[in-house]
Amino acid sequence: MGFLLYIEYTQCIYIALYQGDRLPKAVISKLLTITTAMPDYQNDKEILALYRKEGNKEKGFTIIVQKYTERLYWHIRRLLVDHEDANDVLQNVFIKVWRNLDGFREDSQLYTWLYKIATNECLSFLEQQKRKSVLSLSDVETGLNNKLQADAHFDANKLEWKLQKAIISLPEKQRVVFNLRYYDEMPYEQMSQVLDTSEGALKASYHHAVKKIEDFMRNA
Asked: Which residues does the UniProt record annotate as the domain RNA polymerase sigma-70 region (predicted)?
């Protein structure tokens, strides 16, 4: 069954290519459900080499999606809280990756490039939400808190839930800095590439975020 799903997905890829090199959301959704065991490419350079090899574009892209889906999903989910929002943004991320991967010059690591796209998509989504609803920052924070309270993934009696409430109280970009460092354990050098910010500024931002979270948790 897995192999047949992969064949069906490959056919969808070729249809997308003939329709202007755009990968429809329906194809991305199908891809995210594929459980086929793909070759274990630990090295991103090997994956990119496979992608650029004639006749292997869709296979290389599939491996990238399968390798990074979970990591990117949780990065997005921590910023947006809501599962449906996170899933929609994740699909948009992979559509952008599909459109732009040919132009990726490898002057940064692949996963750094992917995180940059995902982060920018999250910030754009939050900005669009504010514009649509004419919400203030406090209203946005309240909305995220409401989504958190309704999320079965988090138990209101557990420390993690309180931590999430503290993180939501941070300004958006500071929240990104904290999540990348705390959850993804990303080095400051790579965070600098993702956020186009100096390492010194990122260290200061993370320090301030930790202090705010500690104060929030202490007074919660």
From this structure: 65-131
* One domain for residues 1 and 97: yes
Beta strands, E only, 90-141? none
Domain count, the chain: 2
- Distances from the Cα of 98 to the Cαs of 27, 60, 80, 85, 146, in angstroms? 12, 11, 23, 20, 34
Cβ-Cβ contacts under 8 Å for 205 (sequence gap 6 or more): 173, 174, 177, 197
pLDDT per residue as tens digits for the range 131-162:
776 555 455 455 555 554 555 554 555 777 78
Domain assignment of residue 192, given as a range: 137-220
d(CA 87, CA 104): 24
How far from chain centre, in Å, is Cα 183? 13
159 and 220 together in one domain: yes
Per-residue pLDDT tens digits for 53-110: 998 888 888 889 888 988 999 999 999 988 889 988 998 999 899 999 999 988 889 9
